[in-house]
Amino acid sequence: MQEHPGEPLDHVARIQAEWARERPDLDVRPQAVIGRLHRLGALLTEQLCAVYRRHGLGEGEFDVLAALRRAGEPYERAPGELAAHTMVTTGAMTKRIDRLERDGLVTRRRSAADGRGRVVALTPAGRQLIDQAFTAHMRNERALLDALSPEEAGQLESLLTTWLARVEPPRPGD
């Protein structure tokens, strides 16, 4: 189970050993990858969210501001487009936009192209905040990734890209 003989068992390897003892009829090897990815995902999310909090944002608010900033001038998108770019429901998106609007980071207005539609746009304060938060976010991601060598990071990126392409359903329009 543990791929490095002589090293102490990590949390996942201990769980695998217990299951292998209790259910020798099952192949528990998938836990070696899935369990570690799950634990790593939780640890990474914790580290990423710490940076967002330092900027007064939750993960969802950061995602909305980032999606608006990535849109380019004039930094606006329709709420449905924002939901698609952040992979949340439109109901959850409305709550995020409400908070960001209350904090003066975005505005909502009627669409010039479609009077029935709405558009969400970054305010100057929102743009300044997301630029600062994103700079800190990239520094944080670099520090987290620096636990791997450049070669290891490249191999991991390639493997994850391949695996994700095989597992993730295609998005509409892809």
Word description of this protein:
Helix content is about 65%, strand content about 5%. It has about 170 residues and is mostly helical. Strand 2 (about 105-110) and strand 3 (about 120) form a beta hairpin. The model has no long low-confidence stretch (mean pLDDT about 90).
For the termini, the CA-CA separation is: 39 Å
**Rg of Cα set:** 21 Å
Look at the structure and give the mean pLDDT: 90
Main beta sheet strand tally, sense and closure = 3 strands, antiparallel
Strand content: 5-15%
Coarse structural class? mainly alpha
Helical percent range? 55-70%
Order of helices and strands: HHHEHHEEHH
The low-confidence runs, each spanning 5 or more residues with pLDDT under 50, are none
The shape, in one word, is elongated
Query: What is the tally of beta strands?
Result: 3
Total helical segments: 7
Q: Taking strands numbered 1, 2, ... along the chain, how are they ordered across the largest sheet?
A: 1-3-2
